[in-house]
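Today's session is about reading a structure prediction critically. Students often jump straight to the picture, but the first step is always the sequence itself: look for stretches that repeat, for charged clusters, for runs of hydrophobic residues. Only then move on to the predicted structure, which in these notes is written as discrete structure tokens rather than atom positions. Here is the chain we will use throughout the hour.
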Amino acid sequence: MLTLTGVGRRYPTGTIALSGVDLRIGQGDFLALLGPSGCGKSTLLRLIAGLDAPDQGRLDWEVPHGPGDIGFVFQDATLLPWATAFENVWLPLRLRGISRAEAEPRIRAALARVGLADFATARPSQLSGGMRMRVSIARALVGNPKILLLDEPFAALDEFTRHALQEELLEIWQALGCTIVFVTHSIYEAAFLARRIVMMSPRPGRIASEIESPLPVGPQVRAMAEYASLVTGIGDSMRPAFASEEGVP
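Below is the predicted structure for this chain, in token form.
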């Protein structure tokens, strides 16, 4: 779907967020970008979304894309506080000139997909944190995107809600067959969700290593010895990059 070659990004402040990033994203992938805060994960996601541009290198899309083909879910739900869940999900379609009446079937389908069919008229202040994030995901899905980008969407949620939304996201991915790129700093989250775990080194962000998950998809994974083994393997794979940055032999 997308190939990144030698991608770099330096901010006007002089901070080098990314350097020499080479990455290939295939159709139907569920890829996790894993690394500590400040390693350039979010910057890389914004480049893929077209919200920013690289200073070096290039992004080559092998699958044509247009309005609605890229869905983005931010760490904060970023909902309009005065609008209902229905109106928040309608927003990207409304900005493309699609009327409320024309958009309604797609909006209701998106809300139903995230378990909020009965909350279309609720405003953000009437919803829990997990429900607000579900609205944000529905808003990203309403355009039937080819690729869904999520920037640490569950980081601020309690563990029970986070686990539930992780499982729902896997169900969405399986049902829709879209490509997902998921940013996280949690090894456990990356191991549970992703088919490919791409580990990034501390700033300037680079691809340190990559692991393909051997695990099946589903909630049963959390109780598997193979899951614990994968978590350990990810940690071991990241250690050399962090030791190098810290000057440790």
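Discussion point for the tutorial: Residues 225-245 form the longest helix (21 residues).
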